[in-house]
Amino acid sequence: MQQAAYESTTVRIPAGGLELMGDLVIPAGARGLVLFAHGSGSSRQSPRNQYVARYLNRTGLATLLFDLLTAEEERIDERTAQLRFDIGLLSGRLVAATEWIRGIAAARDLPVGYFGASTGAAAALVAAAARPETVEAVVSRGGRPDLAGAALDAVQAPTLLIVGGNDGAVIRMNREAMIKLRCHKELVIVPGATHLFEEPGALEAVAHLAGDWLARNLQNDAPANRTPKGAP
Question: How many CB atoms lie within 10 A of CB 58?
């Protein structure tokens, strides 16, 4: 796929009386919108999420990468490592970002998907369960779906779980989540990849898998095509 440059707009997202910084890209003729939820100790500057976002932009998807924590909260989290595991807080902010961007004219009619990494994947699943009428697809990279708790059962959006083949503990967590998820779901293990997908070709595989999943599921009629809860 030919490389292309896309204009990124810095945005401020209101969330519970705070403002979260984000980077929004809406390619011409965008056919969907993907919000990113970064993982533990990371931010919207995550090079892995940025790589995937740029790939999705080239396939015609808009992307919003944003900080789940404020700068002050990040400083606190660096000392305590507690906020990064507060899935209720993080998922609430993802919902707030979703509601905010749906108010932007250029994005109002775009089908919405989530891409979550590590603990951010748990936040994405909880937020998807909270907004089943809005969220049409979820992709998890090296995710911690176990942290989503009882929300797993309520997720309706088609969900793709991507895990590195050498990330044994996370593979087990995702296999257990597959049992609890009652939506249309798939688990894909990338051979030879570790948790951060730093091996040659690993992140490229993630981007392709995510792009294919989102292309299939981010459609205007996607909610009507979902597998009913409880169906195989």
Answer: 16
